[in-house]
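Run folding on both entries below.
>entry_1
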Amino acid sequence: IIYQVSPKVEFTNIKCTSLDLSFSSFDYCHIKAVNRSFKYLSLKVKLHKVPITKIKVNIAVLKRFNGYRPFMYNVTVDACRFIRNPKSNPVFSYLYSLFKTYSNMNHTCPYNHDLIVEKLNTQFVNNQVTAVLPVPEGDYIFETNWFAENIQRAVVRVYGTLS
């Protein structure tokens, strides 16, 4: 008998924090379990001061070893420049690919609308972190820090397990 073992990603929590409520606020930020094996996450950030023409994003992946520690990636990019030329940063391109098809953040600056990630499911993420670039088992945080006009405006942390 041959058993095939396939790794599985599971979202365990999401925390969205607006650091400047006069600039942006989250309409919703949640994980929804459709059934025991299908979960997705959705978030919507309402922008109060548009248009936004300067955006930087820091993405860090943290893994739990006696607390969460940096793991593999911690990159910061000028998002407006990156969207114009995605090949400019292959690491950020991979991290952005984890959510870009489920998002409306796929055009160049300026942004003059609410930002949405809608129904990003675990099966899609599972394929990205097991087939595209294999990642070891463990508990992780996918942390994004959002800066506009060089001021940190929001933090989104997605907690997950790869087993």
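>entry_2
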Amino acid sequence: MLNSLSGRFLILTTVFVMLAEVLIFLPSVARFRVDYLDARLERAQIASLALLADDMIDPELEQELLDNAGVYNVALQRDATRELMLSSPMPGAVDASFDLRDATPWVLVRDALARLIDPQDRLIRVLGYPQRDAGELIEVTMDSAPLRAAMIEYGLRILMLSAVISVITAVLLFMAVRRFLVAPIKGVVNHMKRFADAPEDARSIIRPTAGVKELREAEEALQSLETQLSQSLRQKERLAQLGGAVARVSHDLRNILTSAQLFTDRIEMSEDPAVKRLAPKLVGSITRAVSLCETTLAFGKAEEPAPVLTQFNLAALVNEVLEAERLAIGDHDVSLSEDIPATMQIRGDPEQLYRVIANLVRNARQAIIGNGEPGEISVSARAAESEWVIRVTDTGPGLPAKARDHLFQPFQGGARKGGAGLGLAIVAELVRNHGGSLSLTGSDSHGTCFEVRLPMGDLT
């Protein structure tokens, strides 16, 4: 109970209400003291009026008037003349005087506190203004013990009332907190438990209903989080199924392409000049298709084969990529260009770097054709101080924001509508396996540029 939010709120409320009552306790007691002394002055003034009505008052009646007023003597100042109106023998000397006429609140609180903590019965003098302008000053002498007893009695009543108010206030706030805060929070916790049991079930996602602004914001944030998590789980399940399907398809396709590869030997033996010219490209395409199936199977195992590093001519490799792309472009208004030194030799895995450049060029070509506008794709390379830099630029429409946010994540960074988003993820992994980096250096309505950096390392 005490460890719960509502239980601690109950305790804190009780403590704070009691603290507030304590802060007003002394001013209340000081006000009571002033009222008590004013009442004594008023009674003393009434008693003195009886004397003014009859100068020859009986001593016994005079004492009775003083006893009724609770004072020993009464002095009244009228017309700048102070006169002792009623008097009786005093038990001792006056210990202190208190002037109520111009006392500040701080002085009244201080005097009240001093009277509460002083248990001795002392003789005090009190000065004040007469009621109804009956003079300039009235002064009485009285004992302090009855005043202190009355103040203590009043203070106890105040404390008891404060305790009752604190308890009632705390209980009401306790009930309100349980109704408007604790209950909705428990509802959120129950929603979280149900969602944890079945995160794929969209029915377990919380629906914001809280009326409290902060709690509703928490519910909305939780709803967004649960929605994204549920979608991610469903996507991963579909991707797992897709991965199994791709692995099976790649396996069968590899067998088919391997069989087709056996027939290319006969094609190479043909005497037809066109066949002789195209046969090497067909053989190379089938070989790459077989390699692609094998690497797709490897990707399904969350790994790419380690690159086999050799030195090769980059210009020849890029030219081969662009020749294949020209066949795919067909009648579309897309031009291809390259700016690579003819003798530039780099070290890497030719098959994997062919896939890297081919993927980047293919993506650019598909973006330009999908845009329906003429465009240009350019591949350039240069040797920096310790690395080779290959740039693939295009004049296409640029990448969408979603693609830029998840650019190199499998199945999430698709650069075109309907794309799976696997190509750039494979490219990035192939480049990383070479110890290099792939980055998007620019993408807007004027085009896109990817940059591949490969370390030179030790060329000897």
